[in-house]
Amino acid sequence: TNRVIFPVLGFCRSFVKAFAEVPEPLCGAWRLADDMDYSFAACTNTGDLWRASWHDLSYVDGDSRRICLELWFGRDLPRGAPVPALTQAGDGDSFPVMFGCQAKDLVLESHRVPWVFFFDMFALKVRLRCLRPAFGPASAAWGTTPLNSSLVLPPSNFFRFDSRSPIERQVDACANLLGGKRCLGDPCFVVGDIRNIS
Which one, of 30, 43, 64, lies nearest residue 136 by Cα? Predict the structure, then answer.
């Protein structure tokens, strides 16, 4: 599936702020008119998180650092280039997010470890990995255009006039489609009521 899984809102950005020795990354979104959804969004590129120094990390923090780096949209960006953003809520009016992974690229790994309180018992340690971020230069979506980007990412996760936003989202071509439910967040792919169609 092309669905995007985001970390709990603000977790990775707060983690970077607390532990990475780079300035706090900030995100912003802009509207073309007051009555419109946000049209554009980007986040500041305060440094390469993969090469940044990190301080005071515990074992658990180290795992959080790894998954946040794997989810980060800024991987492989030129120095100083803004980090691209997606919208999480799917309504075009939510805060921009620069961490996420497509469901198909998430991998769950698990292995047994001895249980510290009982010699003959084991606990299961589960680790989450993201093979590539959902957006940005390291993503599958980065090589798309407005004509084919909806085949890779749900249109509702793009800000309306992002350079890769699907053309049907940019022109609002499917706004008047009547349907009980959108499939995969795509406004042009809806479940309709055909009982009364003659």
Answer: 43
